[in-house]
Amino acid sequence: MKKLCIFFLTIILLVGMTGCGNKVTNDPITLTMWHVYGSQTESPLNVMIDEFNQTKGKESGIVISVVSVTNSTAIDDALIASANNEPGAVPMPDLFTAYPRVAEEIGLDRLLDWSGYLSEEERSAYVDEFLAEGVIDGRLVMLPIAKSTELLFLNKTIFDRFAADTGVSEEELLHFESLFALCCQYYDWSGGAEMFQINDFYHYFLVNVSGLGGQFIRNGKPDLCSAEFEQAYLPMARAAIHGGLCTGDGYASDRWKTAEVISNIGSTAGMLYLRDYVTYQDNTTEEIETAVYPYPTFSDASPVVIQRGTGLFSMKSEDERKNRAAAIFGKWITQKEHNLDFVIASGYLPVTENAFSALFSNIDMIENEKSHMLYGAVDQMYGSYSFCPLPLYDASGEAQSRFEETAKSILSAAHRDYISRIERGDDPETVMSELLDSSLSEIQEAVER
């Protein structure tokens, strides 16, 4: 509730400061917007919206007024509160970005079907898989404006010290079996520090169970009883229980700042939040070198990686001018030159075939060194990895959050138990074997309830 209050107060303040562009008609259309692109840094989407307002918007008598920039979890809660007219909630925005999981909570009949405003030629310009993700019950309610995937990010400066002392190599980061083994080695080498964080355990199991030939979501809920789930679980759990794999809450970008972790799997857009220096507990700082790698795989698995990213929704208005204005903006932001400017500035992937081809046929056009590394890593995956969108089923968002919290809580407790028993003199491998079995059973039982 406190987070919602802060969210809505922010909206009230921003409403007074935005949407004051020069009027070009006697009756311009103003569309309010909430979005998630840049809640912790300067927003690349706000830059594009300013450009739209000064060009196409000015020409068409349309003003996009951004009244909230937040994260995907906060925007879900706020949208649902507003859609349900909960006490203290502010009115729904005209436009917002979100994952498809919120569509049914808001009501499909309340959302604009973009299909009615796109010609067949315009629809065919989008990457098929990206457009298909926004179709629910035959209605195109989410227009793709940017997509992302997941990569492995590394603080190479500290890793190189670890490698020099232990003889490990960066090649061991490319497969999960060796990566999780590195976590344990790093924990011992560093005196108890965590090396690696997976921002989304749910994503990890979704893509790796699939890559191993299984199916993580079955009959509308996670299936934790398959051989493929166990194969993905055991090496990951060993690293978490021994130490070295972070099971704490929050994003790796926060721990990256203080070198509490030196590597993580996260969204391509997470590159925005990875600083080029770290601040240690004694308040000293050190510049670091960052490296980016393709998403790791299991040695005997097909390479699969997540397809993620919010899309653009519009509330259906009785004023048809608003619906047409939303469509004009949606088309503008996904035109090749605008889409490339937006996604390259924010670490996302373009959503039309021609923009996608233009980017990956000439990565050298990207001047920023970190962005160049990022798209180079994506390019290594493109064509050989399968891209897996998040499955949509009843209460999928709630199921994802519950799984994440359950897995982290159980593995954190298992790590504490492991350390306690080892300090008492118990045999480490015997304790590890017991905790691997018991933690797996606990997670299976908790998800089944």
From TrEMBL:
Highest taxon of source: Bacteria
Gene3D superfamilies for this protein: Periplasmic binding protein-like II
Signal peptide span: 1-20
Pfam name, any one: SBP_bac_8
Entry keywords, A to Z: Signal, Transport
InterPro entries recorded: Bact_solute-bd_prot1, SBP
Family: Belongs to the bacterial solute-binding protein 1 family.
Name recorded for this polypeptide: Carbohydrate ABC transporter substrate-binding protein
Taxonomic source organism: Eisenbergiella porci
